[in-house]
Amino acid sequence: MKVRNDIDIKEVTNINAVKHRNFPQVPKVIFGKGCFNQLGEILLPQRKHADAPFIFLVDDVFKNTELAKKIPLLFNDELIFVSSAEEPKTNQVDQLVHDILQKYTSLPSGIVGIGGGTLLDLAKAVSLLLTNKGSAADYQGWDLIQKPSIYKIGVPTISGTGAEVSRTTVLLGPEKKLGINSDFTVFDQVVLDPEVTVGVPKDQWFYTGMDCYIHCIESLNGTYLNAFSKSYGEMALELCKEVYLENLEALESREKLMMASWHGGMSIAYSQVGVAHAMSYGLSYLLGIKHGIGNCLVFQHLEEFYGEGVALFNEMKQKHQIELPTGICKDLTEDDFDTLCSVALKMEPLWENAIGKNWKETITPEKLKSIYRKI
Ligand code: NAD
Ligand code: ZN
User: Fold this and answer.
1) Which domains does the chain have, with CATH numbers?
2) CA–CA separation, 291 vs 86, rounded Å?
3) pLDDT greater than 60 at residue 14
4) What is the CA(161)–ligand 2 centre distance, in A?
5) pLDDT higher than 90, residue 11
6) β-strand partners of 153
7) CA of residue 106 relative to chain centroid, distance
8) Could you give the residue ranges of the DSSP H alpha helices within 81-136?
9) How far is CA 83 from CA 133, 186, 192, 203, 352, in A?
10) What mean pLDDT, rounded, does the chain reach?
11) Which of 124, 198, 237, 263 has the smallest CB count inside 10 Å?
12) Whose CA is closest to atom 27 on ligand 1?
């Protein structure tokens, strides 16, 4: 694997031409079995006054569960259960923000997102839109957010997306599926309690965990790779191999996947994802297929790009007896295939990372259609 030094040879003579990215990380993180019980004491110093509530956005899979009972509600705090059946949408964010602003006389003390990538992204977006005027759709893109959000905490209850560490919140808008990428998108605090991931169904555990695995493969095999992303990517990849190919004890497995997700997210923070993600965005936009399973559906057919990675993926799939659905694209029209390709081809940085600056020479709609037809 080739490591890029982040300095083009051509540019070495003109050092001013090199622009390195400078990005924030999650400033506070608590890790360990049972640490969710400390949420109340973590929130206490962040409470502005009795009328400024904490709003808890919680995956509705936790309705009537022990975890829901442990949520440390005080004063006029509000608990909102949200379905994660569909990926978060810009109008869903706008509605939540509207309701919160209508209901309370002052801004909330903070937003707490409890769930998988869907709820984490929703929490990030709502906290941003409470201080930035307009619709969430206005901010889909890079560095369009002008003001810091209110205080926000993420509690991942399933591991893999890296949404807990990333500087984006991926939203489905009226025109596009695209993240609100900004320095202000990063959580102020993350709570990593492996115990809260206990109930995750096996298939979902595989799909979301494979999102992390695919982050590693795409980052480690990309042209944007540098020592920063490589170190995190390699660590995450090792952890994924342990979790999915060895027979770890349950708690150890949950802990390791949680840390794999974190490191996988850190790896792509300073590089980029690649072919599976670009193509999976098309599936999600046209057919509403969720991120984790969408990545798996594409990745299994990417031997020519990620040979070793795909072989290992198949080994993991077999070990856990995961059957991926088939025939997803079989009834699609030519127009549908065009839509899939146009969404995927818009993800230019992903293709440039995967293939290189001349990616347009080999990545054509026909090429992509031949892969989509296999799904
Ligand atoms: P998810 O949040 O969509 O949840 C998947 C399923 O698992 C849901 O049915 C949910 O109810 C269930 N679930 C979650 N925790 C559970 C638990 N402890 N017990 C039982 N069931 C549980 O899944 P995900 O794969 O984590 O997230 C996908 C979303 O993340 C997509 O919207 C994608 O766009 C986004 N994403 C964001 C980033 C980012 O950096 N912001 C990165 C990758 C993906
Ligand atoms: Zn992903």
Assistant:
1) 28-197 (3.40.50.1970), 202-372 (1.20.1090.10)
2) 10
3) no
4) 5
5) no
6) 112, 189
7) 30
8) 90-103, 117-129
9) 25, 23, 21, 18, 35
10) 94
11) 198
12) 117
Q: What is the DSSP string of 171-216?
A: EE-SS-EEEEE-GGGS-SEEEE-GGGGTT--HHHHHHHHHHHHHHH
Residue 46 CB-half CA count within 13 A: 22
Q: For atom 8 of ligand 1, which residue has the closest CA?
A: 84
Q: Mind giving me the DSSP string for 244-283?
A: HHS---HHHHHHHHHHHHHHHHHHHHTS---HHHHHHHHH
Report the b/e string of 229-249 with b at 16+ CB within 10 A. bbebbbbbbebbbbbbeeeee
Query: 10 Å Cβ neighbour count for 11?
Result: 12
Q: Which amino acid is at 283?
A: L
Positive/negative CA dihedral, 306, 311, 314, 315: negative
d(CA 135, CA 334): 33
- Short-list 255, 342, 199, CA closest to 35: 255
| Phi and psi torsions of 100, nearest 5° | -65, -45
C-beta of residue 202 within 8 angstroms of C-beta of residue 40: no
CA gap 181, 287 in Å, rounded = 24
pLDDT digits (tens, 9 = 90+) for 243-292: 999 999 999 999 999 999 999 999 999 899 999 999 999 999 999 999 99
Q: Which amino acids bring their CB within 6 angstroms of ligand 1?
A: 59, 61, 84, 87-88, 115-119, 121, 157-158, 160-163, 166, 168-170, 196-197, 199-200, 204, 208, 211, 290-292
Residue 320 has phi, psi (to 5 degrees) of -100, 10
The three-point CA angle 134-137-139 to 5° equals: 75
With the most atoms of ligand 1 within 8 angstroms of its CB, the residue from 140, 155, 158, 270 to mutate is 158
Residue 256 to residue 250: CA distance in whole angstroms: 10
